[in-house]
Amino acid sequence: MLRSLVLASVLFAGALGLGQETCVVFTSSSSTVPIVANGNAAPILLSADDWPGVQRAASDFAADIQRVTGVLPSLSNVTASTAGNKLKSIPIIIGTLGKSSLISSIVNSTKLDVSSIEGNWESFLAQEVKNPLPGIDEAYVVIGADKRGTIFALYDHSEQMGVSPWYWWADVPVKKHSQVYVDSTGCSHGSPTVKYRGIFINDEQPALTNWALEKFTNGTSPAPYDSPFLHVFYEHL
Fold first, then answer.
1. Helix, strand, or coil (residue 169)
2. Rounded CA gap, 6 and 135, in Å?
3. CA distance 33 to 189
């Protein structure tokens, strides 16, 4: 359950939680890192040993960057020794603390202070890091304390860029920008106030079920958990 539940308290596009840090900006300065600038997108790097949910969220993040800017960044699984190969711009490095070997290498080599999120449920930090890995002079590094922390970090950045969590459910238009940057000091988020959250969809049968059958499978019923609708549903729920 990913996008909409992550930001279920958001009622309007672009409305962030009160007091929540923001790190996405749309003009360049000496203290920003480019996500998309002059038609070029920062490559996204992560490690193959991270959670499948993080891999999925990273793919969604890349798609969201394209929704906003029209430019699709590359997305690659790399190792600490290969991450710097053939890079032409400052990368975005994504990973989960204690799970991603890429993040472990960065923390060990740079002595990056992750004490603010370590062991904290669903928290994350993101910031520019100098010389994070061999062959990389600087990178924007996104680290989750756990699987959901990393996932939430990516969808939080997407929302700040202009992709509402309701863009699919409620057809909220994506806010377009040709240039997207992040503040080099980044942003972070602690553990949510409510630890366990849930959602109940009223009248999922027959209303939602019959609608999904009509719109996604032409009235046929596929094998359980294999409906094309579910691939969209779980991203946004």
1. coil
2. 35
3. 19
